[in-house]
Specification:
mainly alpha; two-stranded antiparallel sheet; single chain
């Protein structure tokens, strides 16, 4: 079962800032970060029941490799 993904505009800004920060640490790391985030979000969309609810119907997933 696939569910729609809704990303808050403030979260999009946070992701852009995090990508820039990782990229400033090592060339290509920002893109690797975004790839890991996309993989994590795809997993939530594909199998939402396997991820814990953080609040009501909002799911939370940790991104591999990045704190």
């Amino acid at each position: 079962m696939s569910l729609p993904l809704i990303i808050n505009p403030l979260a999009e800004e946070d992701l852009a800032e995090a990508r820039s920060w990782y990229e400033s640490q090592w060339a290509g790391l920002g893109d690797e970060f975004l790839l890991c985030v996309e993989e994590a979000l795809d997993g939530v969309c594909r199998m939402p029941q396997t991820h814990a609810k953080a609040f009501r119907d909002i799911r939370r997933v940790l991104v591999r490799r990045f704190p």
